[in-house]
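Problem 12. The chain below contains 276 residues. Write out its predicted structure in token notation.
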Amino acid sequence: EAKWSHLVQEEMPRGLKKYMEVELFPRIQLKAGRKGISLTTARRWLHKEGWVFEDQHALRKKGVGRGLHRSDIICSIIGHIPEAGQMIEYGKNCDGYWTGELFVNQVVNKIIPAFEARHGAGYQDLIMVDNSPLRKGHSAYSENALLATRMNTKPGGKQARMHSGWYLKDGRKVVQPMIFPPNHLTYPNQPKGLKYKYLRDNCDYMFDTIKENMPKALASVKLAIRCWEHRMVWWMDVYRIGMETSDAQLHVRRYSSTTYKSHRRVAERVARHFDQ
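Solution.
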């Protein structure tokens, strides 16, 4: 047993260390550092690959496993508010994983009542949340959010039922429903698709009708045409002064896109539209 222990604990790690430092690393143009690979690291690599005694077990693969997740609140005035927190046990056959719905439920049923109980009535709380990149975390959208990724190409079918949107036309707010009315002939009370455009809405699949409606369809996109017109003017200007393609793209982008340098800032003129 001592012989095999010396083989696994000394000879094999030293052989792996020599191979990595002398042959493998130079082949891929890497250096192992001043002291090289330690024997402890070499033993760990061998153990991970299954080089163990018969009465031992190799390292188990890491997985999500079972654990606890707690969403807690720290007030800048009081400090930790334990009654506002919420904890779940995640993993297989447990509470699942943290979602946007759970966070909204925590805000409504725990955070706000705990804040009012601690500070009293007449105060407003500003909640700052670390942004979770998960699809169902803090950055999750509501079920009826206006997201093009949730829409089908064609109207109807199984897709999200979004709330109405709006746009400005001649300084007037125009509401744009995302659901067909109940009296629609083809898609009553069903969601609209990405390809529901003017010509499709006014088409009887006759060539003469398309010829008649084409000017009307072009007239319905005045704003988009105006934006492209302004963009083309900038492109013509940069080519007149002889800019290269890469420099021209950067120059046009400066004037054709709105850039907000501060964190999550909305311009005042944009914010005013939401108040209308």
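Discussion. The mean pLDDT is 75. Students who got a different answer should revisit the alignment rule from Section 12.3.
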